[in-house]
Amino acid sequence: LESVAGLLGAQLRRVAIMTPETVVNIGQQALQIMLLISAPMLLAALLTGLLVSIFQAATSINEQTLTFIPKLVVMFIVMILAGPWMIETMTDYVTRLYTSIPELIR
Question: Model-level pTM?
Answer without folding.
Answer: 0.71
